[in-house]
Amino acid sequence: MRLAGRERPAPSCSVAVRAGMVHHRGYHRPLPPRLAARPPMRDPASFIAPAYLNIGESLVRELSKLMSVPGMVSLAGGYPGPELFDRDGVREAADAALRDMPVACLQYGPTDGLPGVREAVAKLLAARGTRCSPDDVLMTGGSQQGFDLLVRTLLAPGDTAIVERPTYTGPLRVLKVAGVRTLTVGVDAHGLDVEELEALLRDPATPRPKLLYVVPTFANPSGATMPRARRLKLLALAVEHGFVIVEDDPYGQLRFDGEHEPHVAGLVDEVPGSKQWVVHLGSFSKVIAPGLRLGYTVAPPDIRRPCVLAKQLDDISSPGFTQATVQRYLAAGRLDAHLPTILGAYRERAGAMRDAIAQHLADRVDFNIPQGGMFMWGRLRDGTSTRTLLPHAIEEKVTFVPGDIYYADRADAATMRLSFSTPSPEQVREGVARIGRAIARMHA
Ligand code: PMP
Q1: Most buried by CB count within 10 Å: which residue of 215, 280, 343, 359?
Q2: Which residue stretches of the chain have pLDDT < 50?
Q3: What domains are defined for the chain?
Q4: What is the pLDDT at residue 28?
Q5: CA–CA separation, 74 vs 187, rounded Å?
């Protein structure tokens, strides 16, 4: 129906637009939706897509800023010890890469990665008992990008994923941005509780998950490692219920005591039908250097293909220079040669932390003591929130990460993550002693 002339707002300056209404000589109408939705002033801050509002700054990053405070001992960061970087080895590998593979280093390259580095990754995994073809490997900007590509290509808003409770914060945020419904399964000293997972999957009220994200070895933050039996059970559940296991393994090579567990991806031959359900994410961040920003995703063809497409949209390819450098580094045997140095240092630091915990915290905090990785996970026995403890700790000049940030739901606020990778053994001892003083101060 056409508006009568009198009702139609004249394009004059006497037309007032307030609160989504047009007001003109006794005529009051809602603005057309296109105009009503428009903010009164255009402001780039108002353009931000809803998914990216309120995803929160990473507390770990905030805490890492305190690292520059003189005298502060940081047990918060999850960074490799910077003095442990194999600077000479990386420099020589970079020189060799530029000298021998200048075009691969400097030209655009294949989205899935340089063939030579994909071969090297397949060899690296074979040495750990996981068979894959270089064709299954996709080189990524760290393991973090691998997970983002999987979520973007496999999950639509409203789909369901399962994560550990607690789990690494990166995937929690990726899933949140993607609008994915995230369910959780508890973790004990032996990692993901597969009995709880089975009960969740069997519950008819549980929406069918498409994906389960797990860090089976020296998990961030729990430090826990799943034994072989749990890994096999997880594979069997993936086959039975039809979900993709995303095995994130940035810490697996950092075992300084005990025997290696096989990758979940290394057990697929023992569980018929499971190969198509497993994706393995690896990284050079913790064993060479995170500044290289190089990791890899090993996935069945149907999953890998869309990830390559998504990566093409992201960054075309991971940097040829760092890929060629890593290829040269591995070919020169530098990883095997240097890893014992890193492991020796982490063994000493973890030992210092274990002893200091026994001395200063044993009557107040329960701890999970791992045989590798970078983290120890604790819980204040009286249930006090570690957020309450943190300001006292900062006054004592020590930082840790309050555990609640690692939960998608049912957060246990009494938990905390301590990292032993960056501080020296002396700093570890002093840092733990300061946490003991902070707890005493909090209760004073
Ligand atoms: N996964 C886990 C469990 C991590 O702890 C981290 C780093 N803190 C990452 C992935 C990210 O690793 P990358 O540098 O390979 O992206």
Answers
A1: 215
A2: 1-15, 17
A3: 9-34 (no CATH), 57-84+336-443 (3.90.1150.10), 87-334 (3.40.640.10)
A4: 65
A5: 25
- Residue 168 near ligand 1, beta carbon < 6 Å: yes
What residue type is 39 in one-letter code? P
Look at phi and psi of residue 113 and say left if phi exceeds 0, alpha if psi is from -120 to 50, else beta: left
Is the CB of 141 inside a 6 Å radius of any atom of ligand 1? Answer: no
pTM over 0.85: yes
Distance 258 CA to ligand 1 centre (A): 23
Q: Are strands 181-188 and 160-165 parallel, antiparallel or unpaired?
A: parallel
Q: Does 248 sit in the ligand 1 pocket, CB within 6 Å?
A: yes
pLDDT value for 3:
42
- Any ligand 1 atom below 6 A from CB of 142: yes
Instruction: Read off the amino acid at residue 314.
Output: D
Q: Which two tokens stand for residue 256?
A: 């300084």
| Backbone φ and ψ of 361, nearest 5° | -125, -5
Task: Report whether residue 169 contacts ligand 1, using a CB cutoff of 6 Å.
Answer: no
Is the Cβ atom of 64 under 6 angstroms away from ligand 1? no
Separation of CA 296 and ligand 1 centre (Å)? 12
Rounded to an integer, what distance in angstroms lies between the CA atom of residue 244 and that of residue 214? 11
Residue 250 CA to ligand 1 centre (angstroms): 6
